[in-house]
Specification:
mainly alpha, IQ_motif_EF-hand-BS
Length: 104
């Protein structure tokens, strides 16, 4: 696998964080716990779908539709694994806090 240059890596990381923060802040309004729980489940499914797409288990056309939800998706394919790792790590770190926030 081709190694990423520092600049490219930085760009990819920023892209991933932008996606994640869009998800995070988009649903951080004042809502009922049930709604928030449903949203969390939907989010988790979307994340899984993204991972699967990077592993080549989901069709490209379907993934494009899913990616459209998060706005423009401009990422090189060799940078995919990096995004996946960053996103998964970040989401798993946030999970406990989100759980407390969802089930309060």
């Amino acid at each position: 696998r081709a190694k990423l240059r520092a600049r490219e890596l930085k760009l990819v990381r920023n892209e991933a964080m932008a996606i994640i923060w869009t998800i995070y802040l988009g649903y951080k309004g004042r809502k009922a716990a049930r709604e928030r729980r449903a949203i969390w489940e939907r989010e988790t499914n979307a994340a899984t779908c993204i991972q699967r797409r990077w592993r080549g288990l989901v069709g490209r056309r379907w993934f494009k539709d899913a990616a459209a939800m998060y706005g423009k998706w401009r990422v090189r394919s060799n940078a995919a694994i990096v995004i996946q790792r960053i996103a998964v790590g970040y989401l798993s770190r946030q999970y406990v806090r989100w759980k407390r926030w969802i089930y309060n």
